[in-house]
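hi! just following up on the protien thing from before. the input was this:
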Amino acid sequence: MHKKPTDFATMAVTDAESPHLGEITCGTLLQKLQEIWDEVGESDEQRDKLLLQIEQECLDVYKRKVEQAAKSRAELLQTLSDANAELSSLTTSLGEKSLVGIPDKSSGTIKEQLAAIAPALEQLWQQKEERVREFSDVQSQIQKICGEIAGGLSNEVPIVDESDLSLKKLDDFQSQLQELQKEKSDRLHKVLDFVSTVHDLCAVLGLDFLSTVTEVHPSLDEETGVQSKSISNETLSRLAKTVLTLKDDKKQRLQKLQELATQLIDLWNLMDTPDEERELFDHVTCNISSSVDEVTVPGALARDLIEQAEVEVHRLDQLKASRMKEIAFKKQSELEEIYARAHVEINPESARERIMSLIDTGNVEPTELLADMDSQIAKAKEEAFSRKDILDRVEKWMSACEEESWLEDYNRDQNRYSASRGAHLNLKRAEKARILVSKIPAMVDTLVAKTRAWEEEHSMSFAYDGVPLLAMLDEYGMLRQEREEEKRRLREQKKVQEQPHIEQDSAFSTRPSPARPVSAKKTVGPRANNGGANGTPNRRLSLNANQNGSRSTAKEAGRRETLNRPAAPTNYVAISKEEAASSPVSGAVDHKVPASP
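and the predicted 3d structure came back as:
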């Protein structure tokens, strides 16, 4: 609003009354202007117009000042807002929830608020600079280790993300750095282990360690510091391949050396090489049964050592050719021994003649002849192994037949229950023999089943010293059946002969007192069986004993001649305990003694 001229007059009066008369004020100036107007004679209208003009100019000045003040206030507010925003950004970036010295609520003038924020901003800026340095240091170490693992070093400065400089983020980077440092340590240990393994393998194989390991990576040299050695994936991979290659080479060389050592020992044994010559190659033969890991002596698998062994084997091979007959006959003897133990009939004379003919005519290489004989020996061992189960059962069967023969002779001995020396031992043996003899039929059945299964599997007949085993078993069965029929006939004949005597004894005998049981006869002492002092039976046919006149001498001799082959068992007839008790000899002992009339 514009002020009226009277107002200016009032202001002039007020200014005139001001105690500071020497000062230039709006009132003094207006008074001076009134004096001038009075002197000039300006009209009231003109004066009012000029006063209004002066008033407008004053308002413009005030307006400009107000605008300037408002602009300054806006700038201060913007500065305060920016400071608050920066403060918030820094606290967020640094992860600081609150800062000491900054009130939670804004108070005071704008300049007071700015003055209060300034120290906190300065402190946060310092913390940010320190935090950025920490982040840069951690990230640089991470980048360096990652570069070492990847196999390439980078000189670039890592870029720090200033939007998140919190301690949690820094801890994450430090945890990552610790994991990478641990991985670096583990990789370094692996590298050192690989290098140590390469060193040991090169020593055993006689190779240059330095050239081998530096071919993988130059930093693996022994003069290079531990922390400077390459730990990259490529270095570890190449070291692993190098170790694997050296181990394969070691395995192959050891296998080759062991083969040569085996050949040397075989040749030495064949040719009876003296110990003095054998000791020259102790360094070769000492590892003949060693595993790959057990060979650790430097130079034990060097190439020149293997070549030396090859030369010696070649020399002995040439020497062996001159002693071929002796070696071949020695192998033939081994072959014959295997077949003899397996009870397989061969023709050794023709085989030896064939060997002699081949060597004399030179139609076969010595090595081929020995290889063929080794093949025959291996085949013979295989065949003997396949026959072992049946042969063991045949031996048990023959042993049971021998006991059967002994028991048969024992039952014929009328003095077997006498009180002679050793009678109790024969009694125990008889009891065991009866149990064993009772198992003979089951033995035979099992043996027949296994023999037939063997023949079906091998498509050939199972022969025992040239005689078919099944034929032997069939003949044994027939003889056993005949034996049973003969025993039945004798029992019936005995019953018929003893019937009148039993009736006569019953007529004159008295009934024994119940208070006194009937006792058996006292046993008499055994006699030597088959003329032997210890009762050991000779291998023979059980049918060789007296058959109470049931068979003619000529017929018995013919059958014994038929069965008396090396392949057949020496005892065929099994006598059980009950059958032995019913025989003519033992029956007299087993019956109760009648009471005296």
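Residues 5-100 form one domain.
The two ends are 182 Å apart (CA to CA).
cheers
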